[in-house]
Amino acid sequence: MNYNWNWGVFFQETPEGGTFYWEILVSGLGWTLAVSVAAWLIAMIAGSVIGTIRTTENRWLNILGHSWVELFRNIPLLVQMFLWYFVIPEFVPPLKRWMVSTDPIYAQFISAVFCLGLFTSARIAEQVRAGIQSLPRGQRLASMALGLTPVQTYRHVLLPEAFRIIIPPLTSETMNLIKNSSIALTIGLAELTFRARELGEYTFNFFEAFTAATIVYIIISMSANRVMAKVEKKVAVPGLIAVGGK
Amino acid sequence: MGFDFSIITNALPYLWKGFLYTVELTAIASVGGLLFGTLLALARLSSIYPLQMAASAYVNLMRSIPLVLVIFWFFFLVPLILQSVTGAERPPQVGAERTAIITFIMFEAAYFCEIMRAGIQSIPRGQIWSAYALGLNYGQTMRLVILPQAFRNMIPVLLTQTIILFQDTSLVYVISATDFVGAAAKVAQRDSKLVEMYLFVAVVYFVLCFSLSYAVKHLQRKIAIIR
Questions:
Q1: 8 Å CB contact between B98 and B83
Q2: How do the domains of chain B map onto residue ranges?
Q3: Neighboring chain A residues of B201 at a CB cutoff of 8 Å
Q4: Spatial separation of the C-alpha atoms in residues A17 and A20, rounded to whole Å
Q5: Distances (CA, A) of B130 to A6, B116, B227
């Protein structure tokens, strides 16, 4: 293939001077992680609430939970990103004024965090619901027989068990979230993939830049996998097949 | 703020062209991805170690990096590969639309591979033994016995993945291909009518994906095999 590899490109100075190309990749990684962590918190909180209310007996709460999931699941993430960044501020004048007056990076960050957080919350809600529904019915009945209120039943019995069961799917949703954060580049957020492309455009060393980004993504997903595997082992529910060998 | 519907009706022919491309891309990528993905699944399950390693390395690589990055990779890689294959002096102009088709086939194959692998592994081992006992060779066993059953068991999952693919194709926006979202974005920016265009796109996707996934759920109940 006709391509001049130049791995030294990361140690060249950027046109603005004073910084090296590897530094802009690191700053991109910083934004990727910042967006992912903030969105993950929103996704976990909203996802747990929505997933839980879908298993309650209240019809209106069920409908609310179901609509939430369908709404965020059936619109492409890219379009949701545009809605959060371009459309919603038009309907909320104070938000629009803030977005125009502030540094665009904050507006991009906030939009990306809400977009990814709520998008992922719908997927986490489905896992939480599946986890709760996979528990034997006796767990709920026994809690009620012990005199626990519905809230106590969820708080002390159903949710702690469900979360321990659904760690593997939650891990893959977390990976998806980190990968999906790259879509924030469409609203101009300078995260890792954005920076890799920028490096390519400045230097024409596209493949070095993409290789670096690819390796970083692989490292992120492998380490997330390791951490979650450790957690999974630690909190495994004794007596289930998943625990194995005992 | 006034809501201007005429902007949508005026742009409909252009949006329709973009939409047709989205459908075409989804169709080609799902069929191509399924074919390549099935081959990958067979490779991952084969007893030939290097083949198994190569297939799982490919699948794991594709699944651990973001689709946007994959699209960028192929956008720059495909012309160079074609150049070295054809021996042309300059990299040929492939265009974003055709690059996207290659990209999505290669990317989706990794996901379809995992689905087909699960499908194949869900078939009782006795099926393979009986096929061999009947004198079928490996190719015949797979083609006539295992794959048809695996495919049938996995139809709902494959269709759900195709709906996800339909949504994911919108990401060709990043290489400026004119799919449905790309067309809408171009009109939106030209006429500065972002609110109308993006809301319209969102509604269209929602209605389509919602009804399709509902249909898949219905189908799933209908074809479920009673065991």
A1: no
A2: 6-223
A3: 79
A4: 8
A5: 56, 21, 20
- Taking an 8 Å Cβ-Cβ cutoff, which residues of chain B contact chain A? 1, 61, 64-69, 72-73, 76-77, 80-81, 83-84, 91, 167-168, 170-171, 173-174, 181, 185, 194-195, 198-199, 201-202, 205-206, 209-210, 213
The ipTM, to two decimals, is 0.90
The whole-model pTM stands at: 0.90
Mean pLDDT of each 10-residue bin along chain B, 227 residues long: 77 94 96 96 94 94 94 91 83 86 95 94 92 94 94 92 96 93 92 90 96 92 72
State whether A173 and A69 are in the same domain.
yes
Range of the domain at A216: 190-234
How many separate domains does chain A show? 2
Inter-chain contact B73–A197, Cβ cutoff 8 Å? Answer: no
From the list A146, A139, A142, A144, the residue with the least C-alpha distance to A165 is A139
Looking at residue A52, which CATH number applies to its domain?
A: 1.10.3720.10
Q: How far is B212 from chain A (nearest CA, A)?
A: 10
What is the CATH T-level fold of the domain B6-223, as seen in this structure?
MetI-like fold (1.10.3720)
Cα separation, A151 vs A113, in Å, equals 29
Same domain for A178 and A227: no
Kindly tell me the number of DSSP H helices and DSSP E strands found in chain B: 9, 0
**In this structure, which long-range contacts are made by residues B128-133, counting pairs with CB atoms below 8 Å and at least 24 apart in sequence?**
none
Domain boundary among A144, A167, A183: A183
